[in-house]
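Example record

The entry below shows one chain as it appears in the dataset: sequence first, then structure tokens.
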Amino acid sequence: MNPDTEIPAGIYIHIPFCEKKCFYCDFYSVTDISQIPLFMVALKKEIQMVSRVSLVFDTLYIGGGTPSVLDADLVAQIIGFAFKYFKILPEPEVTMEVNPGTVTLEDLTNYRNSGVNRLNIGVQSFHAENLKWLDRIHSAEQALLSLDWARQAGFDNVGLDLIYGLPAQTENNWLEDLERAVDLHPEHLSCYMLTRESGTPLDKEVSAGRIRWAGDNTLRGLFETTIDYLTRHGFLHYEVSNFARFTEADGSAWKSRHNSKYWSFAPYIGLGPSAHSFIEPERCWNHKSVQNYIRELQDGRLPVADREKLTREQLLMESIYLGFRTTKGIDLVRLKDKFGIDFLKHFHEMIADFEKKGFLKVTKTHCALTVKGMALLDSITAAFTNQDIC
């Protein structure tokens, strides 16, 4: 691979440990931290084995789970190993997820000294009642303290994660969270709508009628409120759930370089239990089990649970879906060059109908969802991908 001509890839490392499993979360994690030593040995082995791939990288993302349950020296070891074995370009973005209640100023200082230059803090809410309902281990005060410590530790690129759409949550309640977040001057905000992921305790509670789910109209209203408030307060809405601090003077924004790879078909390598990798046209994923992950690597095998080679039709459908996730939209020129399809001509009638309804905006080079359309992302995407597109 020629680093001067190819799109740099990303590295994602999944740390599958949490102090406590959140009842709404479907990301793979366990609370048995006694497995960390064997996990570290296995992860280092996987890094050595996977690094043979002929890619260059410019982002490293340590997610989970809760990566900040690891001691700082273990994080340093992971980053050191990645830099030793992978071809990582100068000035990479190195992100780490941390949760309030699991970090100290000393921890954050050590993470920064280890090479982490972008921090993602799982705040979720500044309301005590919301944090209690979400069964989070931290308080609003601890969330504020974590951000203050991050700044003291030298982080100038900090993102906050927030959740909205809780049952009975009002618009004012959510606006107070947004106002508090903006007042803290983070470089990035990720605002995720609470979802019912199949098989989670939350899903079972809703199905049993013990939790009353918010209505679609309420959720759409909160989604539109989020975009309106943040764009009026200096943030660029660049993906359905993501907002970057925007500087008009130079047109720059603090977008997540790593996450942007997922929406642009850039290659990425996933390490750790349940992590996914994608090098077009193939996708593969690791075992969703710490024990199986460790066992496979102890036996000298990559811990791949399965893999699939995407067909031209699957790649095209994903290009449409991923394009619609971004506010820039589908790159019509790139789509035609890659798949030989004139998107505007092929879907002329459907596009005209969605434009009339205020769901789409079209230029000569892009087709994007409006704010109103983004609230219906899945159904609008399905309308396109269910058609004969090949």
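Notes for this example: The longest helix spans residues 216-231. Residues 1-5 have pLDDT under 50 and may be disordered.
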